[in-house]
Amino acid sequence: MQEEVTERTVALSVRAAKMTGRLLQSVLRKVLAEIRKKRDNPKIHRGRQSVKKLVRQGAGVSNVEITDGNIKSFERVAKKYGVDYALKKDGTVSPPRWLVFFKGRDADALTAAFREFTAKTVRNREKPSVLEQLGKFKDLVKNSVIDKVKHRNQVQER
Q1: Considering the entire predicted model, what is its pTM?
Q2: If phi over 0 gives left and psi between -120 and 50 gives alpha, with beta otherwise, what is residue 99?
Q3: Where are the beta strands (DSSP E) in 2-114?
Q4: Residues 87-109 pLDDT 10s
Q5: Between vectors from CA 89 to CA 83 and to CA 93, what angle results, nearest 5°?
Q6: Is the Cβ–Cβ distance between 96 and 89 less than 8 Å?
Q7: 61: β partners
Q8: For residue 120, which of 51, 57, 68 has the smallest C-alpha distance?
Q9: DSSP-assigned beta bridge partners for residue 48
Q10: Tell me, which fold does domain 51-127 have in CATH?
C-alpha cells in the first residue's frame, strides 16, 4: 500500500516509425530537461494576483487603502507601470474600501501609478457630462422656432 502512494507515474507519447533505444533515450532527456526547467524557474506572476501568491514571492508586502469604487481605472494604470499587486475588498465599512497590497520594491512605481491615477480621476470629475450637455441642446431645439412650411416648387427639366 505504501509503495503505491510514494510511486509516481509519467506517461509519454511518442510518434515514431520504429522505436529504438536511442529515440527513447532522447525523449527521456527532453522530458527531464523540461522537468528541471520548471523546478528551477517557477512561474513568477505579474500584475494583478491573489494576496497569497504575492506573499509567496518572498518580497516584503505593503498595503494602501483606496476608497474610490473605480478600481478598473487603477488597474489600467498599475498595469502600465508594471506593478505586482493584489486587491482586497473590505466590506465591513459602508462605502466599501479597497486595500491594495504590493511588493516593497514596487513602492516607487506604485506612488507614480497613484499620482497618475488621482490626476486622471480629478480630470474626469472636472469634465462636463456629455448627457447633461445633450439635455441642454435638446431643450434649445425644443424652444427654438422652426419654419415648418413645406415648399413645393420643384421643376423638372430635361
Answers
A1: 0.47
A2: beta
A3: 61-66, 85-90, 97-103
A4: 888 878 877 788 888 776 777 77
A5: 135
A6: yes
A7: 103
A8: 68
A9: 85
A10: Alpha-Beta Plaits (3.30.70)
